[in-house]
Amino acid sequence: MNLKIATEIGKCLSNQTRVQIIGWLKEPKKNFPPHETLKHFNDGVCVTYIQEKSGLSQSTISTYLTNMEKCGLLISTRHGKWSYLKRNEDLIKQYTQFLLETNY
C-alpha cells in the first residue's frame, strides 16, 4: 500500500453511504436477503439489494459502487444479468494497516 492508493481509498470513503455499504457488506447475511437464484453470499450481494437498502436512486448507487470497485474496495462478480459485490478484505486489511503504521 502506498500513499497514493491510500488517498484514493480515503476519498472513496469520504461519503457516509459508501461507509455504510462497506459496513453492510461485512455481514451480508445480517443485512441482506440471499438472491433468489444463488441463495448464498459467496459472490457477494446483489446490487439491487444494496440499492434498495440505501434508499438512493439507481444512478447514484451505481456511481458509488463503481467508484468503490475502481479503488479496489469491492469485488464484482456477474451471474447472468445480475451483478454481485463483496468487500475486498485483503485491500481493506492493507489500508487499515497502512493507517496504523503511517508516520506522515
Automatic annotation (TrEMBL):
<keyword id="KW-0804">Transcription</keyword>
<feature type="domain" description="HTH arsR-type">
    <location>
        <begin position="1"/>
        <end position="104"/>
    </location>
</feature>
<dbReference type="GO" id="GO:0003700">
    <property type="term" value="F:DNA-binding transcription factor activity"/>
</dbReference>
<dbReference type="InterPro" id="IPR036388">
    <property type="entry name" value="WH-like_DNA-bd_sf"/>
</dbReference>
<dbReference type="InterPro" id="IPR051081">
    <property type="entry name" value="HTH_MetalResp_TranReg"/>
</dbReference>
<dbReference type="InterPro" id="IPR001845">
    <property type="entry name" value="HTH_ArsR_DNA-bd_dom"/>
</dbReference>
<dbReference type="InterPro" id="IPR011991">
    <property type="entry name" value="ArsR-like_HTH"/>
</dbReference>
<keyword id="KW-0805">Transcription regulation</keyword>
<keyword id="KW-0238">DNA-binding</keyword>
<protein>
    <submittedName>
        <fullName>ArsR family transcriptional regulator</fullName>
    </submittedName>
</protein>
<dbReference type="InterPro" id="IPR036390">
    <property type="entry name" value="WH_DNA-bd_sf"/>
</dbReference>
<dbReference type="GO" id="GO:0003677">
    <property type="term" value="F:DNA binding"/>
</dbReference>
